[in-house]
Design a protein that fits this description.
globular; mainly alpha; 239 residues; 7 helices; 0% strand
Length: 239
Protein backbone atom coordinates (compact mmCIF):
# COMPACT_ATOMS: atom_id res chain seq x y z
CA UNK A 1 0.00 0.00 0.00
CA UNK A 2 2.87 2.35 0.78
CA UNK A 3 4.36 1.83 -2.67
CA UNK A 4 0.99 2.47 -4.33
CA UNK A 5 0.68 5.79 -2.46
CA UNK A 6 4.22 6.68 -3.55
CA UNK A 7 3.33 5.93 -7.16
CA UNK A 8 0.26 8.14 -6.97
CA UNK A 9 2.40 10.93 -5.51
CA UNK A 10 4.96 10.52 -8.30
CA UNK A 11 2.40 10.35 -11.10
CA UNK A 12 -0.22 12.94 -10.20
CA UNK A 13 1.41 15.51 -12.52
CA UNK A 14 1.40 12.92 -15.32
CA UNK A 15 -2.30 12.36 -14.66
CA UNK A 16 -2.98 16.10 -14.79
CA UNK A 17 -1.17 16.40 -18.14
CA UNK A 18 -3.22 13.53 -19.58
CA UNK A 19 -6.50 15.15 -18.52
CA UNK A 20 -5.42 18.49 -20.01
CA UNK A 21 -4.54 16.78 -23.30
CA UNK A 22 -7.87 14.97 -23.23
CA UNK A 23 -9.77 18.23 -22.73
CA UNK A 24 -7.71 19.93 -25.44
CA UNK A 25 -8.49 17.20 -27.96
CA UNK A 26 -12.17 17.46 -27.11
CA UNK A 27 -12.16 21.23 -27.70
CA UNK A 28 -10.28 20.72 -30.97
CA UNK A 29 -12.97 18.27 -32.13
CA UNK A 30 -15.70 20.73 -31.20
CA UNK A 31 -13.91 23.51 -33.11
CA UNK A 32 -13.65 21.30 -36.21
CA UNK A 33 -17.37 20.50 -35.99
CA UNK A 34 -18.29 24.20 -35.64
CA UNK A 35 -16.22 25.09 -38.70
CA UNK A 36 -17.82 22.30 -40.74
CA UNK A 37 -21.34 23.37 -39.79
CA UNK A 38 -21.21 27.19 -39.66
CA UNK A 39 -18.33 27.92 -42.05
CA UNK A 40 -18.49 25.09 -44.58
CA UNK A 41 -22.28 24.94 -44.28
CA UNK A 42 -22.54 21.15 -43.89
CA UNK A 43 -25.77 21.04 -41.89
CA UNK A 44 -27.27 17.77 -43.15
CA UNK A 45 -26.01 15.95 -40.05
CA UNK A 46 -23.38 16.23 -37.35
CA UNK A 47 -20.90 13.75 -35.96
CA UNK A 48 -19.57 13.69 -32.36
CA UNK A 49 -16.04 14.79 -33.27
CA UNK A 50 -15.22 15.80 -29.70
CA UNK A 51 -15.92 12.34 -28.32
CA UNK A 52 -14.08 10.69 -31.21
CA UNK A 53 -11.01 12.87 -30.70
CA UNK A 54 -11.10 12.12 -26.98
CA UNK A 55 -11.31 8.37 -27.43
CA UNK A 56 -9.35 7.56 -30.58
CA UNK A 57 -6.54 10.08 -30.71
CA UNK A 58 -6.09 10.09 -26.95
CA UNK A 59 -6.03 6.30 -27.00
CA UNK A 60 -3.10 6.39 -29.42
CA UNK A 61 -1.30 8.95 -27.25
CA UNK A 62 -1.83 6.86 -24.13
CA UNK A 63 -0.51 3.81 -25.94
CA UNK A 64 2.79 5.54 -26.69
CA UNK A 65 3.09 7.65 -23.53
CA UNK A 66 2.10 4.80 -21.22
CA UNK A 67 4.64 2.49 -22.82
CA UNK A 68 7.46 4.97 -22.20
CA UNK A 69 6.41 5.76 -18.61
CA UNK A 70 6.84 2.19 -17.32
CA UNK A 71 10.67 2.10 -17.60
CA UNK A 72 10.95 5.56 -16.05
CA UNK A 73 8.84 4.73 -12.99
CA UNK A 74 10.43 1.31 -12.60
CA UNK A 75 13.96 2.73 -12.65
CA UNK A 76 13.05 5.55 -10.27
CA UNK A 77 11.34 3.33 -7.72
CA UNK A 78 14.01 0.58 -7.74
CA UNK A 79 16.83 3.13 -7.45
CA UNK A 80 15.02 4.53 -4.38
CA UNK A 81 15.06 1.10 -2.73
CA UNK A 82 11.66 -0.32 -3.69
CA UNK A 83 11.50 -4.06 -4.26
CA UNK A 84 10.40 -5.40 -7.62
CA UNK A 85 7.79 -7.54 -5.90
CA UNK A 86 6.07 -4.34 -4.76
CA UNK A 87 6.82 -1.87 -7.51
CA UNK A 88 5.36 -3.89 -10.40
CA UNK A 89 1.89 -4.34 -8.77
CA UNK A 90 2.00 -0.67 -7.71
CA UNK A 91 2.63 0.46 -11.29
CA UNK A 92 -0.21 -1.76 -12.53
CA UNK A 93 -2.67 -0.52 -9.89
CA UNK A 94 -1.90 3.17 -10.38
CA UNK A 95 -2.10 2.77 -14.15
CA UNK A 96 -5.51 1.11 -13.85
CA UNK A 97 -6.83 3.89 -11.61
CA UNK A 98 -5.44 6.53 -13.99
CA UNK A 99 -7.00 4.92 -17.06
CA UNK A 100 -10.36 4.51 -15.33
CA UNK A 101 -10.24 8.16 -14.25
CA UNK A 102 -9.55 9.22 -17.82
CA UNK A 103 -12.41 7.04 -19.06
CA UNK A 104 -14.69 8.72 -16.51
CA UNK A 105 -13.50 12.14 -17.71
CA UNK A 106 -14.22 11.10 -21.32
CA UNK A 107 -17.71 10.11 -20.18
CA UNK A 108 -18.23 13.60 -18.71
CA UNK A 109 -17.00 15.19 -21.96
CA UNK A 110 -19.39 12.96 -23.92
CA UNK A 111 -22.33 14.34 -21.92
CA UNK A 112 -20.98 17.87 -22.34
CA UNK A 113 -20.96 17.34 -26.10
CA UNK A 114 -24.57 16.17 -26.00
CA UNK A 115 -25.44 19.41 -24.18
CA UNK A 116 -23.53 21.44 -26.80
CA UNK A 117 -25.45 19.63 -29.54
CA UNK A 118 -28.79 20.59 -27.96
CA UNK A 119 -27.77 24.24 -27.59
CA UNK A 120 -25.68 24.96 -30.70
CA UNK A 121 -26.96 22.43 -33.24
CA UNK A 122 -30.64 22.07 -32.39
CA UNK A 123 -32.59 20.40 -35.17
CA UNK A 124 -29.55 18.93 -36.95
CA UNK A 125 -29.58 15.09 -36.95
CA UNK A 126 -26.77 13.33 -35.09
CA UNK A 127 -25.15 10.52 -37.08
CA UNK A 128 -23.98 8.31 -34.21
CA UNK A 129 -24.40 8.15 -30.45
CA UNK A 130 -21.20 6.74 -28.93
CA UNK A 131 -22.60 6.43 -25.42
CA UNK A 132 -22.64 2.63 -25.66
CA UNK A 133 -18.82 2.67 -25.56
CA UNK A 134 -18.86 3.88 -21.96
CA UNK A 135 -20.14 0.62 -20.51
CA UNK A 136 -18.05 -1.17 -17.93
CA UNK A 137 -17.93 -4.32 -20.02
CA UNK A 138 -16.00 -2.34 -22.66
CA UNK A 139 -14.08 0.16 -20.54
CA UNK A 140 -12.50 -2.35 -18.16
CA UNK A 141 -11.16 -4.76 -20.83
CA UNK A 142 -9.76 -1.83 -22.84
CA UNK A 143 -7.99 -0.49 -19.76
CA UNK A 144 -6.61 -3.95 -18.98
CA UNK A 145 -5.34 -4.39 -22.54
CA UNK A 146 -3.68 -0.98 -22.53
CA UNK A 147 -1.98 -1.67 -19.19
CA UNK A 148 -0.84 -5.12 -20.32
CA UNK A 149 0.62 -3.82 -23.58
CA UNK A 150 2.27 -0.85 -21.87
CA UNK A 151 3.93 -2.91 -19.15
CA UNK A 152 5.02 -5.56 -21.65
CA UNK A 153 6.61 -3.07 -24.02
CA UNK A 154 8.16 -1.23 -21.07
CA UNK A 155 9.61 -4.46 -19.71
CA UNK A 156 10.87 -5.39 -23.16
CA UNK A 157 12.58 -2.02 -23.49
CA UNK A 158 14.28 -2.48 -20.10
CA UNK A 159 15.33 -6.00 -21.08
CA UNK A 160 16.67 -5.55 -24.60
CA UNK A 161 17.01 -1.80 -24.99
CA UNK A 162 16.29 -0.10 -28.31
CA UNK A 163 15.80 -3.46 -29.99
CA UNK A 164 12.32 -3.36 -28.42
CA UNK A 165 11.38 -0.78 -31.04
CA UNK A 166 11.90 -3.46 -33.70
CA UNK A 167 9.35 -5.67 -31.94
CA UNK A 168 6.99 -2.72 -31.59
CA UNK A 169 7.35 -1.83 -35.28
CA UNK A 170 6.65 -5.45 -36.27
CA UNK A 171 3.52 -5.63 -34.10
CA UNK A 172 2.35 -2.25 -35.36
CA UNK A 173 2.72 -3.26 -39.01
CA UNK A 174 1.15 -6.65 -38.33
CA UNK A 175 -1.99 -5.19 -36.75
CA UNK A 176 -2.56 -1.86 -38.50
CA UNK A 177 -1.04 -2.54 -41.90
CA UNK A 178 -1.24 -6.30 -42.35
CA UNK A 179 -4.64 -6.68 -40.67
CA UNK A 180 -6.74 -4.79 -43.26
CA UNK A 181 -4.78 -6.38 -46.10
CA UNK A 182 -5.34 -9.87 -44.69
CA UNK A 183 -9.06 -9.18 -44.21
CA UNK A 184 -9.33 -8.05 -47.83
CA UNK A 185 -7.66 -11.26 -49.00
CA UNK A 186 -9.99 -13.34 -46.83
CA UNK A 187 -13.00 -11.62 -48.45
CA UNK A 188 -11.64 -12.27 -51.94
CA UNK A 189 -12.13 -15.42 -53.98
CA UNK A 190 -8.50 -16.47 -53.65
CA UNK A 191 -7.96 -19.87 -52.10
CA UNK A 192 -4.82 -21.34 -50.59
CA UNK A 193 -3.85 -23.18 -47.43
CA UNK A 194 -2.92 -20.00 -45.52
CA UNK A 195 -6.16 -18.17 -46.34
CA UNK A 196 -8.22 -21.25 -45.50
CA UNK A 197 -6.51 -21.37 -42.09
CA UNK A 198 -7.19 -17.64 -41.53
CA UNK A 199 -10.84 -18.04 -42.51
CA UNK A 200 -11.22 -20.97 -40.12
CA UNK A 201 -9.73 -18.96 -37.25
CA UNK A 202 -11.96 -15.95 -38.08
CA UNK A 203 -15.06 -18.16 -38.15
CA UNK A 204 -14.05 -19.64 -34.80
CA UNK A 205 -13.83 -16.21 -33.17
CA UNK A 206 -17.03 -15.02 -34.84
CA UNK A 207 -18.79 -17.90 -33.16
CA UNK A 208 -17.89 -16.55 -29.70
CA UNK A 209 -20.36 -14.51 -27.71
CA UNK A 210 -19.54 -10.92 -26.80
CA UNK A 211 -18.81 -11.89 -23.20
CA UNK A 212 -16.64 -14.76 -24.41
CA UNK A 213 -14.54 -12.38 -26.50
CA UNK A 214 -14.20 -9.92 -23.59
CA UNK A 215 -13.20 -12.76 -21.28
CA UNK A 216 -10.59 -13.92 -23.79
CA UNK A 217 -9.22 -10.37 -24.01
CA UNK A 218 -8.95 -10.19 -20.22
CA UNK A 219 -7.23 -13.58 -20.11
CA UNK A 220 -4.75 -12.55 -22.82
CA UNK A 221 -4.00 -9.37 -20.86
CA UNK A 222 -3.32 -11.42 -17.72
CA UNK A 223 -0.90 -13.65 -19.65
CA UNK A 224 0.91 -10.60 -21.01
CA UNK A 225 1.21 -9.11 -17.53
CA UNK A 226 2.62 -12.41 -16.21
CA UNK A 227 5.22 -12.51 -18.99
CA UNK A 228 6.13 -8.90 -18.16
CA UNK A 229 6.55 -9.80 -14.49
CA UNK A 230 8.86 -12.66 -15.41
CA UNK A 231 11.04 -10.17 -17.28
CA UNK A 232 10.95 -7.52 -14.54
CA UNK A 233 11.43 -9.61 -11.41
CA UNK A 234 15.24 -9.58 -11.75
CA UNK A 235 15.57 -6.56 -14.02
CA UNK A 236 18.35 -4.13 -13.13
CA UNK A 237 18.00 -0.37 -13.32
CA UNK A 238 18.76 0.90 -16.83
CA UNK A 239 20.10 4.43 -17.12
Amino acid sequence: MKEIKRQFYMRWEEMAVYLIIEAGLFLFGEAVLWIMVYVAGEKESIFPFGTVMTLVIFGFLMFFLGMSSVPMHFNTAVSMGATRRRIVPAILCTSLVMYLAMAWFSFLLYHMEKWIFRIAYAGIPIEDDLGFLFRWKYILPVCLVMIAVNVFMGALFLKVGKAAFVVFWFLWMLVFAGGPRLWHLMQSEQDNAFLRLCRSIAELFMGFSEMGILAAVAAASAVLVFVSWMMLRRQQVVI
